Amino acid sequence: MSAVLDHHDAHDHDHHHAPTGWRRWVFATNHKDIGTLYLLFSFTMLMVGGVLALGIRAELFQPGLQLVNPELFNQLTTMHGLIMVFGAIMPAFVGFANWMIPLQIGASDMAFARMNNFSFWLMIPAALMLVASFFMPGGAPAAGWTLYAPLTLQMGPSMDAGIFAMHILGASSIMGSINIIVTILNMRAPGMTLMKMPMFCWTWLITAYLLIAVMPVLAGAITMTLTDRHFGTSFFNPAGGGDPVMYQHIFWFFGHPEVYIMILPAFGIVSQVVPAFARKKLFGYASMVYATGSIAILSFVVWAHHMFTTGMPVTGQLFFMYSTMLIAVPTGVKIFNWIATMWKGSMTFETPMMWAVGFIFVFTMGGFTGLILSVAPIDIQMQDTYYVVAHFHYVLVAGSLFAMFSGIYYWLPKWTGVMYSETRGKIHFWWSMISFNITFFPMHFLGLAGMPRRYADYPMQFADFNMIASIGAFGFGFAQVYFFLAVIVPAMRGKGEKAVQKPWEGAEGLEWEVPSPAPHHTFENPPKLDATATKVIG
Predict the structure, then answer these.
(1) Annotated catalytic residue: which of 109, 160, 228, 379?
(2) What mean pLDDT value characterizes the chain?
(3) Known catalytic residue: 482?
């Protein structure tokens, strides 16, 4: 028997070389390969969602109907939102989690490698269904990305495809979250306590709990929509005693924690990058952890600030107004901590740091406009205007996306083994930063002047700012194409200066203890950590 076991062990070790060709990707169980798949998938969806956004901005370039009719315009706005949120931002952060969490905690892989593969491949049919909805009878859903009843009850068959796609994406998110939680709680290297974990792991741990809490709520809301459409129920149909406003409560009980799901991992990335280039420890690590936890808890009690105009009682308005103002406090703590980390640091401004500082600047602007919208009397004026569009793009595009770029430039040498071109990185940064602000800053003025969102046409007085915004949008879109062709493609082909194990002088953490590029199998024997949990002993 022992001879058989010995033979079996040797047999296993023979198979430790990486699979090659298409099998490496289709049957991927390695966290790095799956992380790469997620990142490439999300970039593809970013391009698809971006094309829809450019369709919207091309139509709004001047007053009158240019390219699309109002129905198709609403399909574009709806699908742009759904594809960007569920197809671009969330999968990108899961890609970061897959790549970096095992490297940062000294684990050999994610806890459930095959489930990891399954949760990625579920996204492909869902994405295809979302994109294919444009070619179904009646076109894509045109109810807005929030899918409010009663519009959703009147849509064509593409609405059902959309609901099915959302269910599949939700299942993928829940599986990914379980995987992340189990990996972080059970597979940390000896010596790495929770309070010594990198901030990125903390933000993802909290995000994963949020996802498990709220994805079933979305599933409930869209299932009720489905049964209203086909099975004779009247959850949201007033003719049968239902209440369309109830849909909004259920949706935003998912939707508000969801916006923090899309920003907390961004906070984690920025909390890794800023200390590395300030060459200082992160200021107030424990307060950062507690602030992240507070944001997660408070995110469950602010949902109805999206609903100030639904006729809720004044007491309700006051509760949601004050709780929304309160959530600005832990967010402010984070911004203070990043600035305090930079204070008197010996800072250098390589591309990752530029994106991180750019993130702090634009995210803070988006945060302030959010604080303004939290004031119920102001929000009632601003509701459904371009001021809201400006606010959430400052938080989501400038928030999530800019932090992701920071993380990509920061970890790209570790992923690919080559250094990107610093000049190209800086061109991408300035091009994106300037065109982003040209696109979305004028929308504040449009909203203050009363221009409603989701309208395909508008009066003449809004023409100038719309033209500026449309020009900026095309500039921003082309900046991301430049990023892919000038930065990502050369790195994937291994073109460029060879990266050393630790390309950034101030970087700390276990991911910099492995060679660049990170080998297919890392940490087969868990590393032993010193007291600070940043260096490997021996």
Answers:
(1) 109
(2) 94
(3) no
